[in-house]
Each structure stands twice: as C-alpha cells, then as structure tokens.
Specification:
A two-stranded antiparallel sheet has the order 1-2. By secondary structure, the protein is an all-alpha fold. It has helices at 2-7, 14-32, 42-60, 75-96, 101-105, 107-126, 130-148, 155-186, 191-198, 207-225, 233-240, 243-267, 285-304, 310-331, 336-365, 376-379, 381-395, 401-415, 419-445, 458-476, 478-488; strands at 65-67, 71-73. The chain has a domain at 303-489. The two termini are 34 Å apart. Mean pLDDT is 85; it is low at 274-283.
C-alpha cells in the first residue's frame, strides 16, 4: 500500500489542494479576527490563493495525466481551470464593493464558501468517474446555496435561496436517478469505460433505459447551466443574491456545468452510433440536446423582453446564452469543444462586466430598474460607451467577442446539417436585440434625474474595464484566440 500511494501522481491535484488549503486558512484567519473588525484584510490572501492555483495549473500543462483513472488532467481541463480561477478573481473584485450589510458582516464566511464552491468546480472539470463527479457537483451546489441567502434581511434573497435549494435538490435526485441506470447497465462508474460498454450491441435491447438515464443526467446538469428544464430558479436567484454571488453563479457554476457536459460528450456521446451524423442517434441524444438548446434560446430571450429589472433581464439572457452553448453539443461538429470554450471566454468578459456596471448604477440610484440607467451617457460618457460594448457583445453585434462566439457556433450547426437549430439561433438573437437596445435607449436617449457623474469604485471599475477590453479583444483577435485554445487541447 505505501508503494502504491507513492506511485500515484499527486502533483496532478496541486491546484485543487491549493484552493482547499487557502479555504481553510481563510476560515482560521476569519475566526481569529474579532467580530467588530473589518474582513477586508482577507482579500489579499484570497487573491494570493487564486494566483498560486493558477500558476500550478500553468505548470501542469507540461505534465498532464490522470489520477487513479478517476481524475484526468488534460488540455481541456487545464484550460477550463484557468477560466474558472480568472472568473473567481473577478468575482472577488465585485465582492470588494458589495454594499449589503448582511454580506459585509459575514464577509469572511462568504470568501470561504466561494473557495469551496470553486474547489467543487475545479474537480468537476477533471472528474472522469461518476461517483467523484457527483461529489464535486454537490460541493459546488451546497456552497452556492449558502451564498445565495447571504442577504438575510431581504425577502427577495430568501425567496431566491429557497427556490435554489428546492431546484437543486430536484436536480440532485435526477442526476442520481439517471446515473443509476447507466452504472447498473454497464457495471462501471468510469465515464470512458461506460461509453465503450454502451456500444455493445447486446445493450441495444435496453435502449429505452439508456435514453432515460441520459435524459435525467442531462436534465440535472441543466440546473448548473441554468437552461431548460431546470431554469426557473435563475431570475429569482440572480435578482435576490448579492451581485458578486450572481456573477459567481452566472459564470463559474455555468462554465463548470458545461465542462462536465463536454466530458460526457467526449467520453460517451461521441461513441454512440450515428450521433454526430445529423440523425437522432441510437439513443435519441442529439434530439434531446437540440430541443434543450432551442427552447432555452427562444424562451430566455422572449421572456427577457418583458423585464423591467436589469438583473432579471440578464438572468433570462443567461438562460438564452446557455441555449447557445447547447447548440454545439446537438450539432456535434468536430470543432464543438473549441466552440464551447471560445464562447465561454467571451461570456466571461461580457456577463461579468455587465453585472459590474449594473451593480454600480443600482448602488448609485438605489434601483435595478431600467429607468435608473436613464441619462448615463450625459453623466459619464466613458462608462456609457463601455456599457455599449458589453451589451453589443451580449447581443452578438459584429466586431465583438459575442458576435464571433455566435458565428462560430452557427457555422458548426450549418456544417452538421442542423438548419432548423441554426434558424432558431438566428431568430433568438434577433429577439434579444429588443431588450438589449431597450436598455441602451435608456442610457443614450432618455434624460436622467441627475447630471452627477457616476463614480465607479475600484473593484467594480476593474471588472468593468476587464469586461470591456476582453469583449473588444475577443472580437479583434478571434483567430489567434481559437488557435491558442486548439493548441491547449
């Protein structure tokens, strides 16, 4: 046994070990600080932890591998881990400016929970064993449940937390139920071995059971992706949670969910007969994903048209963007991994930047309603132009990262012969112009109640600036970025 333990490649677990170590250190330091003292001193320690983990991830590119067959470290996992760490760093900058008293009083606890949620997300992108994947998903989920309810004196926050917990419990049950079918039929929890055994012709007589298993597993993972069918929690949670937590759920949780879907696609779906040739496939997988994609895109954008609250509007927008990300899975083109990865890079910049400026305006005007943005161009032209860039990227207007992300996905759908799905993507994008430009009309064309310039606090200003610059660079350097992603994989 000692020889076996020393032979295992423990270095593959270093990034996760660093995140766990700093979560424990943050907890201990938080316990030492007197209750009446500020927790702002914890932030440098948190940023140090994220930077150390990112360095460990970069060094891991030289020596990929797998740990006991259950934890794989490859180009895709490492690329996703860098995105998750960078996204969490931006969330910490947003947390620096969180003004809710309940959040401020428990700031140390919030940082610990963010690190534990990040730990679950990092393990999710590397898990190739069903049992490990389930534990990682629940680690992220439990930390997220606690974070959503931090605004204890706000009814919207408590209501959102309750809906999030109930939806999460249902998703957990669905995941376990679906996984039990697949594990029972194949006799293994290893995803790659499971995929190989599903190609056995003897299992074709259990085709219905296999389809039920995948349907429930994918339905459960749509909870993390905030798409159909487990999407109803999204608007209430995004509206009620602290904006830093909303940003964490909008990117870190969503990106981890899609990373798991990519792993399942590579390990299992790609092996199923006829999956990638534009047909329904032996187990109906492609049709299910296409339906999820189309409904998420169309319903998310259509309902967003009626929103008067900016955070709820971005919540339904997030549902639509999850639908866009499902299109490559349904089309199953050879470049689907690069399509998902690039879109997540673009989504990181445009969504966190948008949430940062929305929080800044709400803090200044005391409201998240669209009318609060009236006259922003006259108050702060530079901020208004930056917001224009972010919303144009979210809408998919040319020369932005969001446009090239949608265009890349659309090419994959057309190349795979999924013309109906491609048409749904175009229609959904056109619908989204209605609410994005409704917000822009408030910014540029409506008079405001004050001419006082909007002053961005340091943390919000950093996230906003990174979002704007990233959205522009992602559009200008689309080719080189895709090339870097391909080399990483």
């Amino acid at each position: 046994m000692p020889d076996l333990l020393t032979a295992l490649p423990w270095h593959l677990l270093v990034p996760e070990a660093i995140v766990l170590f700093f979560a424990i250190v943050l907890l201990l330091v938080d316990l030492i600080i007197p209750p009446e003292r500020s927790r702002r001193g914890l932030y440098p320690l948190a940023f140090l932890g994220l930077f150390s983990a990112a360095v460990a991830v970069v060094l891991s590119f030289r020596n990929p591998g797998d740990f006991a067959g259950a934890f794989v470290v490859d180009g895709f996992a490492l690329m996703m881990k860098l995105l998750l760490l960078f996204g969490t760093a931006l969330v910490l900058f947003m947390a620096l400016d969180e003004h809710d008293p309940s959040f401020r009083r428990a700031e140390g606890d919030a940082l610990v929970l963010l690190f534990l949620g990040l730990l679950g997300a990092l393990v999710m992108v590397s898990a190739r064993d069903m049992a490990l994947l389930f534990v990682a998903v629940e680690t992220l989920s439990v930390a997220s449940y606690a974070l959503v309810g931090f605004k204890k004196r706000t009814v919207a926050s408590l209501e959102g937390a309750l809906k999030y917990v109930l939806s999460g419990a249902t998703a957990t049950a669905a995941f376990a139920f679906g996984a039990s079918f697949l594990v029972g039929l194949t006799g293994t929890t290893d995803l790659y071995a499971l995929g190989e055994r599903l190609t056995d012709p003897a299992l074709l007589r259990y085709e219905a059971l296999v389809y039920i298993g995948f349907f429930f597993m994918f339905a459960a993972l749509t909870f993390k992706a905030s798409s159909m069918p487990f999407y109803m929690w999204t608007p209430d949670v995004y509206q009620g949670a602290p904006t830093a937590v909303t940003g964490f759920l909008a990117f870190v949780s969503k990106a981890a969910g899609f990373a798991v879907l990519v792993r399942l696609m590579i390990a299992v779906f790609i092996r199923l007969p006829e999956y990638g040739r534009g047909t329904d496939g032996a187990f109906g997988s492609a049709a299910t994903l296409a339906l999820i994609a189309a409904l998420s895109m169309l319903i998310g954008n259509a309902v967003a048209l009626w929103q008067t609250d900016a955070k709820r509007m971005l919540a339904y927008s997030s549902i639509a963007h999850a639908g866009y990300l499902f299109v490559p899975f349904a089309a199953a083109s050879p470049m689907f991994v690069e399509q998902v990865a690039f879109y997540l890079v673009a989504y990181l910049f445009m969504t966190l930047g948008a949430f940062a400026i929305i929080e800044a305006v709400a803090k200044d005007r005391g409201s998240y309603r669209l009318e609060a943005f009236a006259g922003l161009y006259h108050r702060s032209p530079g901020v208004a132009v930056g917001m224009l860039v972010l919303l144009l990227s979210l809408a998919g207007i040319p020369l932005t990262a969001g446009f090239f992300g949608k265009w890349y996905i659309l090419l994959g759908a057309l190349a795979g012969g999924h013309f109906v799905l491609a048409g749904a993507l175009v229609v959904a994008t056109l619908i989204s112009y209605g609410y994005y430009f409704a917000l822009l009309s408030q910014v540029f064309m409506r008079p405001g109640e004050t001419e006082r310039p909007l002053v961005l606090s340091p943390g919000t200003g950093i996230v906003f600036a990174v979002g704007v610059v990233g959205s522009l660079l992602g559009g200008l350097f689309f080719g080189p970025i895709v090339e870097v992603i391909q080399r990483a994989f």
